[in-house]
Model the fold of this input.
Amino acid sequence: MNLRELSAVLGLSQTTVSRALNGFPEVSEETRARVRAAAELHGYRPSAAARRLATGQSGTLGLVFPGERNFLGDLLFTEFLRGCVGKASELSYDITLAMAHGSQTEESVYRRAVRNARVDAMIVSSPLIEDQRPALLRQLKMPFIVHGRTRSAEPYGFVDIDNEGAFFAAAKLLTDLGHRRIALLNGESRLNFAADRDRGFRKALAARSLPAPDDLLWSGAMVEQEGLAAATAMLSRPAGKRPTAFVCSSIGLALGVKRAAAAAGLAIGRDVALIAHDDRLHGMGAEDFDPPLTATQSPIGEAGRRIVELCVAMLRDPSAPLPQEVWPVDLVVRQSTMAAPGD
Amino acid sequence: MNLRELSAVLGLSQTTVSRALNGFPEVSEETRARVRAAAELHGYRPSAAARRLATGQSGTLGLVFPGERNFLGDLLFTEFLRGCVGKASELSYDITLAMAHGSQTEESVYRRAVRNARVDAMIVSSPLIEDQRPALLRQLKMPFIVHGRTRSAEPYGFVDIDNEGAFFAAAKLLTDLGHRRIALLNGESRLNFAADRDRGFRKALAARSLPAPDDLLWSGAMVEQEGLAAATAMLSRPAGKRPTAFVCSSIGLALGVKRAAAAAGLAIGRDVALIAHDDRLHGMGAEDFDPPLTATQSPIGEAGRRIVELCVAMLRDPSAPLPQEVWPVDLVVRQSTMAAPGD
DNA sequence: TCCATTATTCAAAGCGCTTTGAGACGATCG
DNA sequence: CGATCGTCTCAAAGCGCTTTGAATAATGGA
Done:
């Protein structure tokens, strides 16, 4: 059943039926109710294709599958995606995924999505410190929102967490507890969030006039294996030189630290303090850690939900100011942190 | 630039231009070349929306985000999805994701996707032993392909790996090596693949007249933590009663077994034999295990690619027989298996 | 009672593509 | 030489919705 048939049944014009269904004010409530009832009765569903053609909007948001793949990156992306899809579903939007194939550059993927007008807006995830995508999308006149921030001359919409503040707070907690040799195991250094965390971390040390020596700063893939290797190296030094505390960018890294500590005969929360960032991935909560982990936490899925919400709002009112949100991050103290052992 | 403008520029009708571009035979090669050149020159891109409306096809395949979330499940889904999106991209198809929200049942998600005619076909992942979805989709007249199999009275298209054969081969290898107490750590029992693996495993034991006692058969979430707990319990028995070999449905479980063995002072490949199924997840290859793991392996991403290919083929020729593929699974022997220790 | 408003409803024109059914043009055949 | 066939191209009719601009009915004020 299509609109024409439905309006024939009702003895109304297509215009009126369309407006009644879409909540336009110039239709009397009585008529609207009648139309709604008939639509329901006959199981009328407007054709998405026809609406797309008529409105020029596709009701679809696009997301590009990250090129590189790693274990935790995939988990984070999936959880973020889950949030996006969940909220999009509530708002009757679709999410479509794109991906570079063959020798295509990522740029061409964005160009293609835009040219084909298959999406109304795009979501940019995992921004690098220097990321071309905002400039590209702006040039292509494709609305977008970034999950995170990046260096960009021009303004753009984003939702980010306060990575700098979170890692400042984490490191400050440790310095307040008397730790003086604190290691940072961070995400890959070209990713913007890692740079922000690094900055926050350093500021907290600087506030106490503590050094941040290179050999206590590590960055790389945020998985257990890597954390284990990095922490093992750091903990292999003599007692007076090795770190008494670790701040990690992921719980995966924290697991590695824990294993490295165990191998060195050290216990987390007793000999070594540990704080990690917790993205609230299912099955990887800081509270499930042994011992329960002091953590900066912020649900990555929620960011996905919010970004979709903002994309839709942006499409409804393109003249509104660009959304720019920085979410505060909770620092939850649990059992993995303790006062620094006397040297 | 749209079709009308392009044909005006060329001095041809829209019909001819459309056909030239879409490869219809009744257009001379000379004209086709001219049209192609002009389209390229003016950067003409057909409107997806208009094409959808005219053809009734959306050029989109649908996939429903699995409701339950677990660590490895997410990784497998993501890798599968990556394969789907990659191939879809090559074929100029879109993949859109749907998800139940609020109190919606999963069924209603499928119904909604179908009613709104937003997808041409759906991909059904992670089928249960008793899965309603094939029947539902058939009833809704929505083409679909299942990744895996399920019990269903009616025929349906699928791509699956030979889980039964793989686990038969794995268990047989172990019995051939003289193992008599072999444990199986499997995926959740309501999932069809787990049932298939269980069957293959049991057949191999039965072929040697070996028992398959319940206390050596475990199933649950396929993550390290769970594997550790299950294997620890099994290995805590006296030497003559504990298993000398394990077959695991995932490398995550195998990691758990390894840790349990280590805790019991046993080494994989020396005291305990270990075989796992390897879905070829990036960063979790059996060859990266220590020791390199004997494994049944089959890339889950390839299955995604193939399914998309088959979906598209099915849409192009709906009268073709339903694709039903069962892929053989390689058993690659590495260093984690050895002859059974003498009791 | 009549005109100016306001509240409802409508007819028709797209949106940009595919596809049907024909027409035009040479070439081939009886 | 007219009839028959291919080959190539075309005009026009949708696909099902939104939206513009106008018409009609209902209401209120003078």
